[in-house]
Amino acid sequence: MAHQAGGQRPAPRPAPASPEAQAYLEDYTAFLESVPFPSLVIDHRWDVLLTNSAFRTLFREAGPHPTAMPADNFLRFVLFHPDAATVLGDHEASWCLPMLAHFAKTVERYGHDHGLQAIRRDIAQDPIMEAAYRHGLPHWLRVVGEEAAEHDGAVRPLLHPDPRWGATDCRIVVEAPRTLEDMGCTRVTLVLRETQRAPSGARRSRRTASHLRVVPVAD
Question: How large is the C-alpha radius of gyration of the chain?
Fold first, then answer.
């Protein structure tokens, strides 16, 4: 069950090692706040270092969760938070599966990372998500193409709590300025699009079971 995944809050993220890095992040926080769209800075685990007020507004209605709050670890939020589908439209196909695919590639690169291994254990504890990860995901990638795992440039549906936006789309823009890249971090911005759309694949109701349905596997 997704709402049961992860029985222990992740360890606090370490502060930047140098005063210069700390000062950079303080100034980058001010810059991030000037961006009108939801934006966050993450590391390779999707641990969140910085967010802006637009990001916090987008996810303001997410209820408490011990390990999967959107401003703590965004990957965990997408996969495990029972309220994720109330904000992330077409939650399974447009968010969960691409994030699982990205996670699988990251595990290949950072196989011994304790934070990633903890997420992998939580996936394994959810039978439906584990089946999707081990069997459905490879089939899905063969059907839609490996590029579906890429976030930068992807257009995905959102259900914004502000009725001025409502059911809309966002384009994901991923950037890594040199200083952030040196810290092992990237910035992700959800550029909201003006055209509203009919809700698809998600409703504004609290989810109490696993997010993922059974993903068909190849015969």
Answer: 17
Between CA 136 and CA 219 the distance in angstroms is 11
For the chain, which residues score pLDDT lower than 70? Answer: 1-17, 196-219
pTM here?
A: 0.84
Q: Give the span between the Cα atoms of 83 and 74, in whole angstroms.
A: 13
Compute the CA torsion angle 171, 215, 207, 187 (nearest 10 deg).
-30
Domains of the chain: 37-192 (3.30.450)
